[in-house]
Give the backbone structure.
Amino acid sequence: MTRELLDVVDLQGKKTGIACRACVHEKRLLHQSAFIILLDEQGRVFIQKRSFSKDLYAGQYAVSASGHVDAGESVLHAAKRELREELGLSGVRLVKIATVPAFTRFERTLCTYFKARLPENARFKLDRNELIANESKFLSWKQARKLGRRTAPSLRLAIELYDMGLV
């Protein structure tokens, strides 16, 4: 297994160093992550339930797809990679909606959110190592809000972005 390397960044997203994923989390170094809010034709959001094998937010509901930005990788490339790896989707047009810092007890990350519409005739190929397929689904924003404490910070922040009219 290879070590995942991440860029350490400042609050503007400027690279200040490089560290392994475990070191970034252990030392709570600021790094970047990409989050994708995938909407269907009715405006419902695809919510994934994270696999219980995940080291962060296992078994919690999260945004459609997400992941760390690898060292030397652009945030947009990371978003496209995560969509492909987690949901089996490619060629999806992503629109950047916000970049916000998020500090939790587990990590400090500069979160870049993208929104996307599910292309007509798109077919999911869900990665069962990343998410629990039968509990990942499209929900209205009202339904997503009712998930309450079972949600990862990424989904709570996505709901805030929706409430602000950015999604």
